[in-house]
Amino acid sequence: MAWLITGGAGYxxxxxxxxxxxxxxxxxxxxxxxxxxxxxxxxxxxxxxLDIRNTDEVAKVMRENSIQGVVHLAAKKAVGExxxxxxxxxxxxxxGVISLLTAMAEANVYNLVYSSSAAVYGSPGVAHVNEAxxxxxxxxxxxxxxxxxxxxxxxxxxxxLKAVSLRYFNVVGAGDETLGDTSVNNLxxxxxxxxxxxxxxxxxxxxxxxxxxxxxxxYIDVRDLSGAHVRxxxxxxxxxxxxxxxxxxRGVGVSVKEMMQVARKATNIxxxxxxxxxxxxxxxxxxxQVENAHRDLKWQAKFGVDEMVTSxxxxxxxxxx
Length: 321
Ligand code: WQD
Known about the structure:
This protein is of the alpha/beta class. It is built from ten helices and 15 strands. It folds into two domains: about 1-170 and about 220-250, Rossmann fold (3-Layer(aba) Sandwich), CATH 3.40.50; about 170-215 and about 250-320, UDP-galactose 4-epimerase, domain 1 (Alpha-Beta Complex), CATH 3.90.25. It has helices at about 10-20, 55-65, 80-85, 85-105, 140-160, 185-195, 220-240, 255-265, 290-295, 305-320, and strands at about 1-5, 25-30, 45-50, 65-70, 110-115, 130, 160-170, 170, 200-205, 215, 220, 245-250, 255, 275, 285-290. The strands form four sheets. The protein has a seven-stranded parallel sheet, sandwiched between helices. Strands 6-15-10-13 form a four-stranded mixed sheet. Helix 1 (about 10-20) links the parallel strand 1 and strand 2 (about 25-30). UDP-4-deoxy-4-formamido-beta-L-arabinopyranose (WQD) binds near residues 190 and 202.
């Protein structure tokens, strides 16, 4: 028996592969390598290069590998790109979930951990969001993540499927130098990229209604996030309910300006940043209430922002020097 990790050649997926192996589980990676890297997949892990929307082939992989459960991370995740190409995002992310659920039903696979996102909350207008907070996604990316949750919840209610959706907050860091985030879409890699080009990292607006005027987010180390997937898998094995959703963050808000100071310490570069205009769609604050994960998944984040940015910087240097 083994677990199928879709997107397992990706930044977060490769950490999940490592942690599932560490928990004594056999794993198989399914990835189309459109952004994942084959070199991230351990030599003893089968890598199946396949588009998740190829339902019949996905079901065949499940049967041939005696798959007992799936962690579904394979998706497009760039918010800006989703605004420019909504149909591609719906096809990949929503079409991908429909295809995966269909393949699982055909192959009699009944356990699923789904990679969702805090983007489902949009601009909540409250300091902290819990799992019952209104879902008002503000990008096609966030919409596709929420629709994926709906599809999985409905399929769990209609069949023997048991599933958990994990709403990721802002992921930073690297478990080792080879597992860094190579997509330069988010704050920390963008800071490093600016420093590498001898330009000033940008702060998207300092006129928000927050203590220092910059946006506040819930940054979580990828190592902690990955560990939450193991706990979610264990929850599935013992849970009486067929579906649950959990926020996965630290529950602590950190502003952009504070992250700039953390990055100065981690890089040992006393850089100046440049304040520019707000980025459309950015909520002033998005921080998770994470008590449910603590209670039900028996999971808690361990790493702080210094450790996550330092590990990210070490991986960045290893990939860029
Ligand atoms: C963080 C903060 C920016 C870059 C998105 C997705 C979310 C998740 C994480 C997948 C914001 C500010 C950024 C820069 C800046 N992805 N910023 N200068 O937008 O909070 O969340 O990525 O699940 O779903 O929505 O992350 O890293 O883009 O921005 O000032 O050069 O940093 O305004 O306040 P975001 P981010």
